Structure formats: C-alpha cells, structure tokens
C-alpha cells in the first residue's frame, strides 16, 4: 500500500500510483521507463502528482510510441536517461 505520508518516496511508490491509474488488460510501461521520465522531467518522486502522471503521453504509457512528452527537449533527456 502506498504511504502518502512517507517523507522519502521511491520509484516503487510512484510506479504503484502510475499502475493504479493506467492498469487494465493492456500492458503499461515498466518502472525503469517511468523512472527515466521522472528524471528527465527533473521531478522528485515525492512531488509526482496524479496530474503529472496524466500529462504523460497516453500512447507512450501503453507502448504505442517511444517517448512520454510533447516536448522534444524532454524527450531527448528521457532517451538519455534510458541509456544511462
């Protein structure tokens, strides 16, 4: 269960929220890809909101396209984060 009072969040906490929002019978992106998106955006895990998660490209969430953002600059950072 996600502890919203935790002072230190992890990617597992963020991914749990992400999965609850998007999970249905269609596979979604994994924790590694979500972590790369979070780091590319320069956001701390504890600052991730449902609104931010909703702003991720829906087609990316379900694996239909390779990048999560509408910003070319953020997508380039995302790709670099995946390579790291």
* Total number of beta strands: 0
Task: Calculate Rg over CA atoms.
Answer: 12 Å
Could you say which overall geometry the principal axes of the C-alpha atoms support? Answer: globular
Proportion of β residues? Answer: under 5%
Approximate helicity band: 40-55%
Low-confidence stretches: none
The total count of helices amounts to 5
Q: What is the N-to-C succession of helices and strands?
A: HHHHH
Summed up, the domain count is: 1
Overall structural class, as computed from helix and strand content, comes to mainly alpha
Tell me what the structure shows.
The chain has 84 residues and is mainly alpha-helical. The protein has one domain (13-83). It contains five helices and no strands. It has helices at 11-22, 31-41, 50-55, 58-61, 72-83. The longest helix is centred in the first third of the chain and has 12 residues, at 11-22. The termini are far apart.
In summary, what is this structure?
By secondary structure, the protein is mostly helical. It has helices spanning 11-22, 31-41, 50-55, 58-61, 72-83.
Please outline the helices and strands:
Elements: H1 11-22, H2 31-41, H3 50-55, H4 58-61, H5 72-83
Keywords:
about 80 residues; mainly alpha; 5 helices; about 55% helix
């Amino acid at each position: 269960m996600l502890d919203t009072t935790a002072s230190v969040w992890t990617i597992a906490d963020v991914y749990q929220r992400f999965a609850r929002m998007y999970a249905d019978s269609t596979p979604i992106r994994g924790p590694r890809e979500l972590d790369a998106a979070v780091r590319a955006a320069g956001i701390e895990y504890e600052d991730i909101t449902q609104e931010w998660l909703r702003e991720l490209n829906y087609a990316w969430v379900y694996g239909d396209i390779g990048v999560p953002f509408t910003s070319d600059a953020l997508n380039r950072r995302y790709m670099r984060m995946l390579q790291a």
